[in-house]
Every structure is written in C-alpha cells, then in structure tokens.
Amino acid sequence: MITPWYRAAAYAATVTLASMAVQATVFLLLLLLSGNPAGDMADLLITPVLAFPFFSIAVLTVTRMVLPALPRWRTAAIDTTLYTLVLLFVTIGFTASEGLADAVDFGFVMLTVGLLSLQLPAALAASALAQPRLLPVVGASAPQIPARRTPA
C-alpha cells in the first residue's frame, strides 16, 4: 500500500527538522565551549541551511509516496541516504559559483560536518523512530450480513 501524502510530508518534516535541531544544538554547544563568536559558523552555514529543508522535505515526501511500506531499518537506510545526497547536492548547488572543484570539495566538507555535528546520525534515528507513522491504517470493513434465504 502507498502512504498518503500528508503522512509522508509529516514524516519528512520530522526527519529533516529533528536532525537540523540536533545539529543546531551541537553547534551551539561547540560555540559556547570554544568561546568563538557566532559569526564564524554562521558564515559557513547560512546559505545552504535556508534551502536544504525545502528540498529535503520534498524529496523524502515523494520517496515515501512512491515506495511501498518497508521495514523500519530499510526505510531509515533509504531515507538517510537520500537525505545525505540532498545535503551534498544543495551545498554543491549553492557554492558552484566558486568553481565546480571547490563546490564539490565544500559539499564533502559539509557531509563531514554533518557527521561530526550528529546531523546525519540524527536523521537515521529520526527516520527509524518516525517510520511507524508511515504505515497506512486499513479500516475494518463493515460486517457482512448474510443474505436471508427465502423458503421455496
């Protein structure tokens, strides 16, 4: 069975926003512990962060609407892989004006930052925890009343 669009969109938003919240929390803790000004990390992340949630939610929603209901960890593996690819391509797309080689390098730097800031592991965990919401609920059919037999 195919997942309804509203459940797929809610799932995609949960995975994307929860993992970004974990990343923001880790960055905030790093800033507080290091004593560096907030502008250092803001310059690094501001452009891709604004567009990434839109693309991630769109890709994950379409994926969950197209694929049938899968086991929990298979869903988490597929969606985390797509989440990672979207992060890579959005970062490359926003930094391509600096040259393709530098954009690809920066894309992989952002994937490393995503691992170290626990964004990608949080996406895996959020995907696995939110997966039961994807399972379509089939309503019980109305009880069938047997037809009356008329005596002949």
TrEMBL record:
Keyword presence, Transmembrane: yes
Record keywords, A-Z: Membrane, Transmembrane, Transmembrane helix
Top-rank taxon: Bacteria
Residue ranges of the TM segments: 12-33, 45-67, 76-96, 108-130
The protein, known as: Uncharacterized protein
Organism this protein belongs to: Streptomyces arboris
